Amino acid sequence: MTRTRVKICGLTTASDIQAAVAAGADAVGFVLYPPSPRAVTAEQAAALCKLLPPFVTAVGLFVDEDPSVVEAVLEQVPLDLLQFHGDEDPRACAAFGRRWIKALRMRPGIDLRAQRERYVGADGLLLDTFQPGRAGGTGARFDWERIPSDLAPEIVLAGGLDAANVACAIERVKPYGVDVSGGVEATKGVKDAALIFGFMQGVRDGDKRR
Predict the structure, then answer these.
(1) Which domains are delineated in the chain?
(2) Which of 25, 42, 168, 177 is 20 to 30 A from residue 183's alpha carbon, by CA?
């Protein structure tokens, strides 16, 4: 049985880390984008990374950030993977010598195959819901039928996922991984351990049906 990998994003506290790890998350995401309600500083992210056990991937999320700022973060925070969530071009994403993924908002008419060719150096593509003026974290889902089945093994599915719909998403899309933030929050920016565990159960249920 293929196992869907899971990233819990927007963690801000030690209890968030503990819940994500205990629930079996493969990766945790730190939002290094100050306008976000889930943003952390480099110092906070570094402290949270120290709580991670082996084999849990630390992901840093950036949105059209100045390269010097990204470099400064990398000097402080032991990130395993970079996630670029803005309009960064491939050269900008690859400039730091780290593994990276490119988030794409599902704008009308987007050509995912062309985008995969453009970002060929990425470890994968993360697909999120498009809303004008929002870099992500919309809490809304998009039409999963827009994802070509041949690209699914390289896709991390995001956008409006929660415990109630993630099993269906996995069954229909068959992505490599799923990414959740708002769907496991009690209030915006505040994670809920019970919702995290419920989401992970939904992933396991989806894996049985994919």
Answers:
(1) 5-209 (3.20.20.70)
(2) 42
